[in-house]
Design a protein that fits this description.
By secondary structure, the chain is an alpha/beta fold. The chain is built from 18 helices and 14 strands. The structure holds nicotinamide-adenine-dinucleotide (NAD). The site of nicotinamide-adenine-dinucleotide (NAD) has 27 residues, from helix 1 and helix 5.
Length: 437
């Protein structure tokens, strides 16, 4: 059992805190956002993540999980300090490390005894080395800390499952002592023979970027295959299924759609590209994944315009799904943002509905109409665009939709609607790479 402080209580920090306390450690989640901390201390969970509330509640009640906005005191009492603040995109695609730098400063001022300093935020390759230098510059006793890179691979929407049952845990450190400490934290996984890999700091940092970029590449690849399927009369679902049966390819991340979004892929690809460029290397595959993704988002908006014969003026479009993917309230870089902007720019009216993410989207667009259920949002709509693959959209009542809508146009950017039914009810529709029925 270790005494851990996690700095940054966002998607990653909160799930990590909940998960590490579930493993039996004593964890404090610290954040400068005192409102968030107050809320957590009174049982309010700031993000939507299936299963998270239950794990937090259990460990909070059992005195293994604490929340604090006193960052300095939280660092002082910890054996392990985990950095989990945001690393948004900065200038020239580089990751902006201002939050990490601020935390590193605070840590260096509060190293009252030996600690393992561990970075879970996604940081460019070479950052760990710089963090170590920065701390060395501020302290006398170099034995006061060891550094670990422990990148996080959780997916929003299934974060708790991913954290508690990970495919792999990467521990990048040149200190055997720190490695043992980290293994202790993850001990329940260790017992279950979950693969814990010990690497160098740089290798750990690279594994995170290489993994995210590869997954994004896979998405861009299947999206481009889907676009070609449309032109050649092939069906991308059959293509992707058959491809996925090949063990060398695997069936994951082969779902065509409106282009990837979220808080990670877009910025991580840009950051990898910037790091490679700064080192004199052109990573053309990564660049291609970014370009293909931007094209895919545009392609979806063009599809909508085509369905309306190039005229969206005064048309009411019901946008179903705002989150960048199902089971999260995160709208960062969501393809729905591009779609909403496009409709507004073309004189259309947006009716928006998401089971969870309406409030988040309201922060970006406060002058569109938000609804609390699908059927209210489609009343008198000329068209519907499905942007997120929420389960509730898979079983829509077409009879009711037909009755409520003014028009009969549906764009399904997630390929979740039954095309036989769409045809049966007389909808004019489009999707991504399917043979139309
Ligand atoms: P987030 O924006 O949800 O949360 C960051 C938190 O850090 C916020 O609560 C903020 O108030 C807090 N913070 C900022 N500065 C602080 C400071 N000086 N002291 C204390 N708290 C501070 O970010 P996130 O989505 O959890 O991502 C965190 C990191 O993890 C990023 O590097 C991201 O790339 C990486 N990551 C994210 C995911 C994901 O799915 N979201 C998955 C894997 C890795």
């Amino acid at each position: 059992m270790k005494n851990i402080t996690i700095i940054g209580t966002g998607y990653v920090g909160l799930v990590t805190g909940a998960g590490m306390s579930e493993f039996g450690n004593k964890v404090t989640c610290a954040d400068i956002d005192s409102k968030k901390i107050e809320g957590l201390n009174s049982g309010l969970i700031p993000i939507y993540e299936p299963g998270l509330e239950e794990v937090i509640k259990r460990n909070f009640e059992n005195n293994r999980l604490f929340f604090s906005s006193d960052i300095e005191a939280s660092i002082k009492k910890a054996e392990v300090v985990v950095i989990a603040v945001g690393t948004p995109q900065g200038e020239n695609g580089m990751a902006d490390l201002k939050f990490v730098d601020a935390v590193v400063d605070t840590i260096s001022r509060n190293l009252n005894n030996y600690k393992v300093v561990c970075t879970k935020s996604t940081v460019p390759i070479g950052t760990g080395k710089n963090i170590v230098k920065k701390i060395y510059n501020k302290i006398q006793d170099k034995e006061l800390f060891d550094y670990v890179s422990n990148p996080e691979f959780l997916r929003e929407g299934s974060a708790i499952k991913d954290f508690l049952w990970p495919d792999r845990v990467i521990i990048g450190t040149d200190s055997d002592k720190a490695y043992k400490v980290m293994c202790d934290i993850y001990r329940p996984l260790y017992i279950n023979k979950n693969p814990i890999a010990h690497t160098s700091v740089e290798t750990a940092e690279m594994i995170k970027y290489a993994s995210n970029s590869f997954l994004a590449l896979k998405i861009s690849y299947i999206n481009e295959i889907a676009n070609l399927c449309e032109l050649l009369g092939a069906d991308v679902h059959d293509v992707a299924n058959a491809m996925g049966q090949d063990g060398r390819i695997s069936d994951k991340f082969l779902h065509p759609g409106p282009g990837f979004g979220g808080s990670c892929f877009p910025k991580d690809l840009e950051a990898l590209l910037a790091v490679s460029k700064n080192n004199g290397l052109k990573m053309k595959t990564v660049k291609a994944a970014i370009i293909a993704n931007n094209n895919q988002k545009k392609r979806m908006t063009r599809k909508l315009l085509n369905l309306f014969d190039n005229d969206l003026n005064k048309r009411t479009i019901s946008v179903l799904g705002l989150a960048f993917k199902a089971n999260t309230d995160d709208i960062r870089e969501s393809a729905a943002i591009d779609m909403i902007k496009f409709i507004i720019d073309h004189g259309g009216v947006v009716n928006a509905y998401d089971p969870i993410a309406n409030n988040e989207m309201y922060k970006l667009f406060n002058d569109i109409h938000y609804y609390n259920n699908v059927y209210d949002s489609i009343k008198d709509a000329d068209g519907i665009v499905i942007m997120t693959e929420w389960n509730e959209f898979r079983s829509l009542d077409f009879k009711r939709i037909k009755k409520y809508m003014r028009g009969n146009i549906i764009l399904d950017t997630r390929n979740i609607l039954n095309m036989n039914q769409l045809s049966e009810f007389g909808f004019i529709y489009d999707n991504v790479g399917r043979i139309k029925k």
